[in-house]
Amino acid sequence: MNRFHVHLNVNDLAASIGFYSSLFGSAPTVRKDDYAKWMLEDPRVNFAISALGRPAGVDHLGIQVDSGDELASLGQRLDAAGAAVIPEDAAVCCYARSDKLWAQDPQGTRWETFHTVGEATTYYAGDAACATDGQACTPDVTRMKPRTEVAASCCAPQSGCC
């Protein structure tokens, strides 16, 4: 079952964790020094906040899926909607490993559709996304270039990316 995703940038992580824990009636399921995430069932949402020095507010919206097939289906729907779909395979982002598709709506809101395949010990694997030329986790999709080939692996050995 798909899950709606919201990612906010915050200035005060502790205050925001307190606020959202009270609002949602539960503690975050993931809590790090720069990040927190709630995997809520009512409403069914993956709600994340991070304090990484970005301007406060909505960073991006998204849809989390349970399989690669569902991710491919969402990619087709984004394509049909007229969005430039930017793949980011085997990304390490937000303490998770995921295959992603990035797009931007007509108003410039970034959309992340993703299938998480595991946990990671770091927020990013590196400064740049391994499968694209954009910044990991919240790339500027207007500056990214779609890959023309699908590589078996996006990362160099020992790069810390995959």
From TrEMBL:
BP terms from Gene Ontology: response to cadmium ion
Residue span, VOC domain: 2-116
Name of one Pfam family that matches: Glyoxalase
PANTHER family noted in UniProt: CADMIUM-INDUCED PROTEIN CADI
Cited NCBIfam families: ArsI_CadI_VOC
Name of the molecule in the record: VOC family protein
